Structure formats: C-alpha cells, structure tokens
Amino acid sequence: MSEAIQFLPPRDSVMSRRAAIVTDLAELLPPECLVHEARELVPFETDAFVSYRRLPLAVALPKTTAQVAAVLKYCHRYGVPVVPRGAGTSLSGGAIPQEDAVVLCLSKMARILELDYANRTATVQAGVTNLSISEAVGTDGFFYAPDPSSQLACTIGGNIGMNSGGAHCLKYGVTTNNLLGVKMVLVDGAVIELGGKHLDASGYDLLGLICGSEGQLGIVTEATVRLIAKPEGARPVLFGFEASEAAGACVADIIASGIIPVAIEFMDKPAIEICEAFAHAGYPLDVAALLIVEVEGSEAEMDAMLQSIVEIARRHQVKTVRECQSATEAALIWKGRKSAFGATGRIADYICMDGTVPLSKLSYVLNKTAEIVESFGLRVANVFHAGDGNMHPLILFNANDPADAAKAEAAGNEILKLCVDAGGCLTGEHGVGIEKRDLMRHQYSEVDLHQQMAVRAAFDEGWIMNPSKVFPLDGRA
Amino acid sequence: MQTNFTAAQLADPQVAESEKILRRCVHCGFCTATCPTYVTLGNELDSPRGRIYLIKDMLENGRPADEQVVTHIDRCLSCLACVTTCPSGVDYMHLVDHARIHIEKTYRRPLADRLIRGLLAKTLPYPGRMRAALTLARFGRPLSPFLKRIQALRPLAAMLDLAPSSPARSSMAGLGIPQASGERRGRVAILSGCAQPVLDPGINDAALRLLARFGVEVVTPEGEVCCGAIVHHMGKEDQALDFARRNVDVWIRELETGGLDAIIITASGCGTTIKDYGHMLRLDPAYRDKAAKVSSLAKDITEYLAGLDLPRLDAKGVTVAYHSACSMQHGQKIVAAPKNLLKTAGFTVRDPAEGHLCCGSAGTYNILQPEISGQLKARKVKNIEATKADVIATGNIGCMTQIATGTAMPILHTVELLDWAYGGPRPQKYKQKAAS
C-alpha cells in the first residue's frame, strides 16, 4: 500500500468510544443498514483510487433522508468524522475512509422520485446511478447530459460532490450546469432544500457552492436535474493522426474556429490498443493518435459541421477519417472509450491523472507528460476529453512493486504540476480527494486556501465531514 | 490491484490462479451496477467488487471461511453479469468457484442449512430421485405456509412451491429418437440432463424432432450423468468433478467410436458448466486433454442450429419476449443466435427491459435464497409482461420453472417454438395457456 499521502490521525475521543458508537448507531438504523463486523468493513476501505486504504469505524447504509439526518446529528454531537460514499468509483480517493470515521453510503437510496417532462426535470435520490436517469427517460426522448465514463455505476450524489464531467460536457456543461436543486442534510442534522425546478435561485448561488464540495459541506440526499431533449441524430466520427501533436493542434483549431461539437475525445496509441482489445469498436490501429468527434442534430446540420471539421483536420494531415455506419457501431465506439480506464487493468495497474490545460498548450503538455513518465522508467496511455483540455494520462505500473508504485505517484505529481504551470488546474472532474490534496499549494496561495477553508468552516466548524480530503493537513485553521 | 500472498500460498495452484484473477481487478466498481443483488440490496458487500474483496481478504490471510463471508458469497447468483460488464476482464466465475470450494472445506454450516444442501445434492442430479421428490412435494405442498414461518425452513417451502402441480410426460415416450431425414448434416450427442427431463421432457423431444428434420443424427450415449453444475455451485468439488469425469468418459468413447460433431445442450446452465470441464479438470493429467476436447465440442442447441442455416419462414403473428438466461448471455456469451433463429422462423421478438438482470432462479438459488430470488422474479416478470408479448422464450429450464411461478404468460424453450414453426406440434403449454 502506498504511504506518501497521509490521513489525519484517528481521534482518541472517537477510538476510545468505538463500541459505544456502534451500539448507538444500531439504535438509529435498521440492522441491514449498519455494517460494523471487522470482516465486513474491509470492502469499504477504499474506492477506485485503490492504492490507498483505511478501514472505517462503521458503515451506515441509510434508506431515508431522516436516517441520514439522524446519523449526522449523532456524529456531529460526538465529533465522529463522516465520509460520504455513493458507488465508491472515485479516482481521487474521495470516498476512502479513515479509522475513526463512519462511512455514510447512499447506495440504498437509489429511487427515481419524479420525472417532470413539462419542466424537463428529474428528481432522484442521491444513490441513483448517472446512467439510470438517461435510461429512465430515454424512450420518452430525453437524457441527462453529464456522462462520466463511470456513468454506469457512479451515483448522482457522487457526481455532485465532485462536479463530475464527461465526454459530452463540451457542449452541455458539467454537473453544476445541469443541477437545479438538492435536498441535503447539514452537519448538525438539519435538512434543507436549495434551488428547485428552475435555472436560478434568489440570493447567493449556494447550489453552486455545494456542487463540487467533495462531501465537506453536508450530504445531498435528493437532487433535481435538468433533462435535455435528445437530438434528431448523433454521429461519432474517428479521426486518425500520425502524431499526437497534430491531433492536439487539430483540437485547438476546431475550438478556435467556433465549432462546438458534442464531444472531442483523444486517445493515443497505447490507449487505442487497450480499448480496441476490449470493445472491438474498429478504432484504427495504424495511427499514433485518434480523435473521436461527435456531432449531433439534423442530417444537414451534422453534414455541415463535419465538413468544417474535416477541412480543419486535413490541415493537420489527418490520416484516416471514418464515419460510423450504424447505431451499434456508435455504441461500440463509446463503449470502448468509456471503458478505457478499466480496460487498462488488462495490461497493468494504473493511476489516472485529471489535470486540465488551455487547449493551446495541449500538444506541449502531451509531449512533456511523455518525457516525465519516461524519466521514471514507466509507461503512459492517454485517453481524455480533448475538447475541454481535460487530460487523463494513465500511468501504468506494477502495484505489487512498492518502488514502482512510488515512482508512478511521483510522476503523477510532476504531471499535475506541469498542468498548473501551463495555466491549467489540478482537476477537471475527478475532484481533489486525497490524491491531489498536497498539491493544492501548487495551485493556490496560503491566503486562497484559508479563504476556502473559511467557507468550509461556515458549514462544518469541527471538521468532521470528509476531513482528510481537499485541504493540506498542515496549516489548517 | 495489489495482492499480498506468500510464495508458500502461491504454491497451491488454485490460490495461484485466484491471485492472477485478483491482480486484474482495478476496483473501478462498474460491476456493481449490473449485479442483481447489489441492485436489490444496495450494499457493497453484496456486489461483485465487495465479494472479490472479501475473498481476497480471506485467501490472503489463509483464513477459514466465516459466517460473514459465507453470507455474502451465498447471496451471489453466479449469474456472471459482472463478467460481461467488467472492462478489465476479471474472471469472477473461477474466483467465486474457488471461494465456494474453500467455504465447503473450511466452514461448518448450521444444521438446517447442511441438511437442505445435502438433500439437494442427493436429489436434483438424479432423475429417479428427482421424480420421487416431486411426487412427495405435491403431497407436501399444503405444508408450505407453515414452513415459511421458520426462517431456517424457508428453503423447504420454496422447494414445495416450485414443484409443478402435475407430472410431466414425454410425448415421445417409448418411441425412441426420431431418424434423421434428408441429406445427413451431422452427428451429435444430446445431453439428456437430470432435472430437465423430469420437469419438462417436451424440450428435448422438440430438439430431437427439429434436429432429425434437418438431417442431424442424434445419439444419447449410455452412462451419461448430471453435468455437475448443481453441486459445483454448492462448492461440492469432488462430487462435481466425479460427474464431469464420467461424462467425459462417455462422450470421448462416443467420439472415438461413432464420431461427434457436437455435444448439444438444451439447458444453458449445464452448457456453461460443460464448457468449463477443461478448466475444472485442468489439474488432473489423466483427464485434462479429454475434458478440454469435450468442452470444445459442447454447444448450446441454438448455437448449433445457427450453423445449419435454417430456412426463413413467413411472419406468424406471434410475438415472443425473449428472456436470455444468465448462463446463456453471460456464461456462454450467446446473445444474438436464439433471437435470430426465432426471427428467421417467423416470430416477432421483443427484448424485455433490464435483460441483463437474473430472474433469481440460478440453480438452487431460488430454494436457498427465497427472499432475494422472489424480488428478482417479480422484477423480471414485470419487465417481461411489459413487452405485451404472446409467449416467453428462453433457453434454460431453471428460468422456465422460476418465471412460470410468477406469471400467467406461457413460457417455452426456444427450441419448442422453433420445432413448432418448422413442422412440429404446437407446444402443449402454449395450447393450454392460450385456451385458458
């Protein structure tokens, strides 16, 4: 297990009352909603950032907002840390617990509460998976736009916590642009509602503050999200290039020309090979880099937009242009792309970076990334949301070799610093979690961090909500 | 993900294999979303990722199985939806097989559980005993409501509820196997099976007629026994391997004497297991190669029929909801063939929503885990009925028995509909239900 990233030491006041806390929680929850046996806690010790693991004190699996409120009120009263969890798919360790924490996992709250087509909204419990919203409204001609690659499994609550994005966010925006309202429980157990079924609320944009707060300002139990009408048609097109630089420059030129396709996804050669082996999507294997560009609208609209994109791609010596011929083929193209991280597991362990850079710096950062990873003697696969500059280098390593794992983490840190230095930021959509926490000082000054912590303290003075995350452990107020 | 085994632990070939499987998992969590028990219970411990983690922890620490681990492994249907979903290619099937064997070897179950599992293992794989048990069950059915009141005896109640109300009889009893007609297109063995011929002999009757009609010679070699799936899924490894070896002997003998193009299986649950014989017997040098040969010959009936290029028939005006058994779509990855055959034969085919989710049958699961099984059945039936089809088609006797207890819609094996379309009799069950 990696050790470079520290957790807060467990609170004595909590550890010494361990048994009593479990007994008390058992009073608040039905038996099937509380996990506390030593063996059963082990599967909750990590999420998709699996290099770090900490056993929690207990896991609460509430079925209602009232149960969430009861648990939070209790933990607040006794100063017991709380780590919220949805499906545990975080790539930044957002749901990794700590020894003195109660994990509050919303996986049993997975019902769709209301579909309101007149207002084009869906109201769902926080444990509903991202994809199941689109599935529920698909036959009626709607969808929910943000589509993280883990959308099959990740929950709306988690999406709100990390302000998740996805391939189609280039056109439709990320979670915060598609979230209209929440019901949430504050740290003292108070249940509040923010927003509603409309685009803006009076007063401060508190909803905007909650979205992306990584479970530190409260726990969202219900969300109302925007539904969007499906376009008449959508077509992913594959553009193969001889060099990554050419593909990167092509992306910058497409965006600079004012065209906004629905998605522009980038894969380098290692990523193409990994994804093709899993999905058999027909990605070209004889190119160094691939762009998946999706256009949508009427046939005429798609044709016109594609024509402009092809012209730009030609200026960058595009080698192959392939339009997909059927809905099945389109589905395979996206299946391959969205399974890229998991499919990488077929060849190696990996950690996935999430830096975002200005598009003009895309080629430079790609080249530098390759240099950095090579300097550590490791390999890298790049598969990411190129249209909004959100890079996802996957650093490949051997998890059973501690030296290799340490090198991978060090390389990752260098890459993230590079993104910041290039005028970008540490995280595009995966959140800070524990993974990027100690790099926050590279992005922000002490003053910046203290202002952010002051906002946090307004919600949770005692630092019990997901306390080891986001802000460096030293120098906290 | 990282694993932590000693060299001594890895000297055990089964541990070594499980370690390799665990190394593939990147803990992404995709599998949770398509797991029937996670979707039903909403607890990581009842998801594939949670079970993988429990198994990893147990094996790494060289611990005997304990009550918690057993509870969550027992709740796994072995539907293998997770294997279809997993982008990393984690071989969950063989990992959970190993865990079940480990449980059977190291954990002493409560008395009632031991008795019920023993009863199932000694009855289901043997057609004679199964027939006798069903007769008893018909008399015992009035006891079901009383048994349900005692938690430990609920599996007995579930067993009584599942037993059909009248004994099934083969329409071809005493007539033997129909002769292949026309140009000869192949010679195959068909698995007679253990529970299926007792519960529904009409399935293999239809398969025999259909194969004969298209010029395929069918043999039923002497000495064949249960495929071993039932006991294999209960972790009873020795009994499962014994069944497998006997079948391997029977089919290899037939292959060497008369020649075989395929071993045809009409229950996809059995098919998944027979296709795995090569793996199950990989550590037995005397059987390894023969078992691999048998596995390579094993074909689901629809897989084999797809290669015969059956003629296209006119539309029938009959709409079929096709329920893909988990052992068919996840275990054997046969997805399009059954539906294409039905369409070619003139049926209109509809896919029920959430087709990837198990109906809750899963071998002995509906007996051993009646609560979860019941919830999955209700969900499955709701999705099937929403198709408003005339009839349900599927390729596994377990699903047929399970779904039939939850709906008034007729449910048939795919091959029964195909036999009917290509000149066979209208299936009894369809007649009865259509008339009622």
From TrEMBL, chain A:
The protein's UniProt keywords, in alphabetical order, are: FAD, Flavoprotein, Oxidoreductase
Q: List the InterPro entries hit by this protein, alphabetically.
A: FAD-bd_oxidored_4_C, FAD-bd_PCMH, FAD-bd_PCMH-like_sf, FAD-bd_PCMH_sub2, FAD-linked_Oxase-like_C, FAD-linked_OxidoTrans_Type4, Oxid_FAD_bind_N, Vanillyl_alc_oxidase_C-sub2
Known cofactor(s): FAD
Task: Tell me the protein's name.
Answer: FAD-binding protein
What Pfam families does the entry give?
Answer: FAD-oxidase_C, FAD_binding_4
Report the residue ranges that make up the FAD-binding PCMH-type domain in this protein: 52-230
A molecular function (GO) held by this record is: oxidoreductase activity
TrEMBL record, chain B:
The upper taxonomy is: Bacteria, Pseudomonadati, Pseudomonadota, Alphaproteobacteria, Hyphomicrobiales
Record function comment: Component of a complex that catalyzes the oxidation of glycolate to glyoxylate.
Give the cofactor note: Binds 2 [4Fe-4S] clusters.
Family annotation (Pfam families): CCG, Fer4_8
Q: Which InterPro entries match?
A: 4Fe4S_Fe-S-bd (IPR017896), 4Fe4S_Fe_S_CS (IPR017900), Cys_rich_dom (IPR004017), Glc_ox_4Fe-4S (IPR012257), Helical_ferredxn (IPR009051)
Identify this protein by name: Glycolate oxidase iron-sulfur subunit
User: Is Cell cycle among the key words of this record?
Assistant: no
Q: What class of enzyme is it?
A: oxidoreductase
The cofactor required is: [4Fe-4S] cluster
- Molecular-function GO term, any one: metal ion binding
Q: Which residues form a coiled coil?
A: none
Keywords (alphabetical) are: 4Fe-4S, Electron transport, Iron, Iron-sulfur, Metal-binding, Oxidoreductase, Repeat, Transport
**Gene encoding the protein:** glcF
- Reaction(s) catalyzed by this protein? glycolate + A = glyoxylate + AH2; (R)-lactate + A = pyruvate + AH2
Q: Please give the NCBIfam families that the UniProt record associates with this protein.
A: PRK11274.1
| Segments forming domain 4Fe-4S ferredoxin-type | 16-44, 67-96
The protein's Enzyme Commission number: 1.1.99.14
